[in-house]
Automatic annotation (TrEMBL):
Pfam families: CtpB_N-like, PDZ_2, Peptidase_S41. Keywords: Hydrolase, Protease, Serine protease. CDD domains: cpPDZ_CPP-like (cd06782), Peptidase_S41_CPP (cd07560). GO terms for biological process: proteolysis. The keyword Lipid metabolism does not apply. Its EC number is 3.4.21.102. This is Carboxyl-terminal processing protease. InterPro entries: ClpP/crotonase-like_dom_sf, CtpA/B_N, PDZ, PDZ_sf, Peptidase_S41A, Tail-specific_protease. Residues 409-455 are annotated as: Disordered.
């Protein structure tokens, strides 16, 4: 099991269109393939032959086959995906947190590419792109009708080359062009600082290859500056997830050794695992356990975790594990609800995913469960204390997409889904509020930076540590899983 976790893969944010994914990288076991439906395969072959013989123009046979595989896999759920040779290379590169591109986390909305967040310090960040911006054209190509994967391919390229993005900004009701120079994106996934005497904040924006090392380094810096920490805030807001072994490591930093972090359950024996806080489950092969260099106090320091609707997958695993073990108080709003595991499987016989030369698929193989057995899928983690984004509330929470909103989403597997009749009314109110906000000057609409003294949820967390009153949300309630259309 330890080896499997060491090669587990990436959640690339875009909650939202198959981009949020925790991946287990495996070799296809050929002797476990299901019997083939010969009659249906004959129909597929017949369709292929008819298209090849009768289509108005000559067709590329390899592209037809690739598109057929892509269609089959993508029809399963929002997180299953086919990788051709180029997209396979890009997917592998993303696990390091380094790639050539513009530096945005994206999803799809109404056939357009939506900016979830510009990566801090990236070309897109410097160019002024904002959350919720819609990309309508990439160079001369209209985005409408492109798959998310195709859009990503067009935005990536060689370093120092330019790409022209046409942006529609809803809240300003305007369309404008932005020319961005591609460069190698090196995302720093861990930030932190002492907020005030005795209280510190550490933020993980994504779980990447270096997240554990950077986390340990930052924690040691904080303790060197402030040896007597009375409360630590672990900020996982808008963290889309990432590498499972990094999530296990961060959980293990705060939990007793061998404590259960997460379990998985699916159809095959390999999909049924109980993953514990053990070095073999998060360290690279033959490397030392870097968590041993953390201050001993980290195991008992009072801990608060901040989450919101953008906290997904690996970040939900961490929040759920520490919440179930009563190691941390979770504050904020209900998380995204990405609780399924995707296995990345090479289509070339005899190759592991890491060595896969040509093509692969990423398919959903199991669900995640917290240590107490709660399914994360389509439910998410419900905070112990619901706290709004601002003192005025969370007026746009109803507009934010969660796993349960995705077409063809996998259900939780735990009971009947319930529809919230008040949700549409909340959405209408949020849209009206957004229209009113769009009329204000841009400076007044800029949200406060995470970790600043104007970060309302962070300030409420500090109040919680101090035993002061916490402004609990009057509007946020647990959102039930909504019915899935058949």
């Amino acid at each position: 099991m330890g080896h499997k976790l060491k090669i587990t893969g990436w959640i690339a944010l875009g909650a939202l269109a198959g981009a949020l994914t925790t991946v287990s990288l495996q070799t296809v076991a050929r002797n476990t393939l299901a019997p083939l439906p010969l009659e249906e395969l004959q129909q597929l072959a017949a369709a292929f032959g008819l298209v090849k013989a009768n289509y108005v123009e000559p067709v590329d046979e390899k592209k037809l086959i690739a598109d057929a595989i892509a269609g089959m896999v993508s029809s399963l759920d929002p997180h299953s995906q086919y990788f051709d040779k180029k997209s396979l290379k890009e997917f592998k590169e993303s696990t390091s947190g380094r790639f050539i591109g513009v530096g945005i986390e994206i999803t799809q909305e109404d056939g357009l590419v939506k900016v979830v967040s510009p990566i801090e310090g990236s070309p897109a960040f410097r160019a002024g792109l904002k959350t919720n911006d819609l990309i309508t054209k990439i160079d001369d190509t209209v985005v409408k009708g492109l798959s998310l994967n195709d859009a990503v391919k067009r935005m990536r390229g060689e370093p120092n080359t330019k790409v022209l993005l046409t942006i529609y900004r809803k809240d300003e009701n305007r369309t404008f062009p932005v020319t961005i120079t591609r460069e190698e994106i090196k995302q720093q996934s861990v930030r932190g600082k002492v907020i005030e005497s005795g209280y510190a904040w550490i933020r993980i924006s994504q779980f990447q290859e270096r997240t554990t090392e950077d986390f340990v380094k930052k924690i040691n810096e904080i303790y060197k500056q402030e040896p007597k920490i009375k409360g630590l805030v672990l900020d996982l807001r808008n963290d889309p997830g990432g590498l499972l072994n990094a999530a296990v490591a961060i959980s293990a930093a705060f939990l007793p050794e061998n404590a259960v972090v997460v379990s998985t359950n699916g159809q095959t024996p390999d999909s049924k695992q109980v993953i514990k806080a053990m070095a073999q489950n998060y360290m690279r092969r033959d490397s030392a356990d870097i968590l041993r260099t953390l201050p001993a106090d980290i195991k008992k320091v009072p801990l608060i975790i901040l989450v919101n609707e953008g906290s997904a997958s690996a970040s939900e695993i961490v929040a759920g594990a520490l919440q179930d073990h009563k190691r941390a108080t979770v504050i904020g709003s209900q998380t995204f609800g990405k609780g399924s595991v995707q296995s990345a499987l090479c289509l070339d016989q005899g190759y592991s995913f890491n060595d896969c030369p040509n093509a692969a698929v990423k398919i959903t193989t199991s669900r995640y469960y917290t240590p107490s057995g709660r399914s994360i899928q389509a439910k998410g983690i419900v905070p112990d204390v619901m706290v709004d984004e601002t003192e005025e509330g969370s007026p746009y929470a109803a507009l934010r997409m969660r796993e349960a909103d995705l077409e063809k989403h996998l259900t939780s597997g735990q009971g009947e889904e319930k529809k919230d009749p008040a949700r549409e009314k909340a959405r209408e109110d949020a849209i009206k509020r957004l229209e009113e906000e769009s009329r204000k000057p841009v400076a007044e609409r800029r949200p406060p930076e995470f970790g600043s003294d104007k970060d309302f949820q962070l300030m409420q967390a500090i109040n919680q540590f101090k035993g002061k009153p916490v402004m609990v949300s009057k509007t946020l309630v647990e959102r039930k899983e909504e019915p899935k259309d058949n």
